[in-house]
Amino acid sequence: MLEYMPDNTSTHNDNGPEEFPTGDELPEESMTVDDLAPFSVDTDEFTDINELASAEWKESTTADERIRTVIKRTVDPKSANEIADTAVVSENKARDTLNRLVEEGIVRSHQTSSGKTYERDPDWYLLQQVHQLATSGDLVSQIQRIKQELANYQSQYETSSPEELLISDQELDEEELSDISHWRTAKREFNYLRAAYRLQQAKLEDPYSERGSFNRDSDQRVSP
């Protein structure tokens, strides 16, 4: 594993620049708020804030990046035209990129009577979430926190799952329905964390895996 080694010979000062401009290099007039340009496009050309946001997004990203961003958030099937409109690209560009992402297993496509639709592949998205969690470091405290939260719900409602509570004969008020929603979210988060923990441990124990993403010194064991 390669580790970053600081250059002790560097004279860089983290508290400021190494060199300051001379008097000849300074502007003749002081800067004002009007001199600042937070946007990469000319804001005077736009009267609608949504059009400005789209133009700024288009200026600062590539077409493929925008399509990937949109499809990553698409959980209901949408046409290439709908995705193109959101991603600020042509329909042909959107369709070509989406079909390529289908081949890569990132996107799912569906053939309907009105044409092909696209959505993110839920299995791929789940694996990405699990992998991201697995590389986030210590998961033990997060798992213990969620396990305690689930135990509290089970104790409070004297049932093992939110589904059992929902289909019970008990009349549920608004607060209890809210608890069911949070309980379900906690269960889903626990399943993600458990899968991520197992992946993390597998990487730690695999002699051929790259261990740079994990810290063996913080290796703890739980029973997820």
UniProtKB/TrEMBL annotation:
<feature type="region of interest" description="Disordered">
    <location>
        <begin position="1"/>
        <end position="32"/>
    </location>
</feature>
<feature type="compositionally biased region" description="Acidic residues">
    <location>
        <begin position="21"/>
        <end position="32"/>
    </location>
</feature>
<dbReference type="Pfam" id="PF24033">
    <property type="entry name" value="DUF7342"/>
</dbReference>
<dbReference type="InterPro" id="IPR055766">
    <property type="entry name" value="DUF7342"/>
</dbReference>
<keyword id="KW-0614">Plasmid</keyword>
<protein>
    <submittedName>
        <fullName>HTH domain protein</fullName>
    </submittedName>
</protein>
